[in-house]
Task: structure prediction
Amino acid sequence: MSVDEKTDITEPLNNIIRVNKRAKTVNTKKLSDVHHTFGDLYTRERVLFRLITCIYPRLCFKSLYHYDEENDPMFNGDFMVGMYTPKGPIAYHFKLAYLSDFTHLSFLPKKKLLQINICESFKHYLPQHCLYLRPLPHGF
Result:
C-alpha cells in the first residue's frame, strides 16, 4: 500500500516533532519506525563514516570550527569531519562527545577550512562521491 498526497501525514508529524523538540518534550533519538530509532541510525552513520575515514585517512580531516560560526551557530557543541573526494569536499557534524572516534585524523586549521567549499548535504552526496573513490592498492 502506498501513501498518496491526500492521506500523507508526514509533514504534520514533522511539525509536531519540531514543536515538541523545541519545547524539549520529546527525545528524537528515541523516535522509531518500529525497526530502528533515529539514535540507532545516527550511530550507524557515524560508525560507517569513521570506517571510510580509517580507509582513506589522508583524504580526511577534522575541525573544531564551523565554516560560518558567526552567521550559523547551530553546530555549537559539534565538530566537523570532512573528506576530499574527486567530486569535491564533503563534511559531516558530530557531537564533541565523539571526537575520540576520530583520533586518527588531523585537525584542519580554521584558515584552510574557510578556503574550501564544503558540501554539507552529506546524506545526499556521500554515495555519489564514493562512486569516484578508487580501491587502495594491496598493502597500502
Notes: The chain has a mean pLDDT of 78. Strands lie at 60-63, 78-83, 90-95.
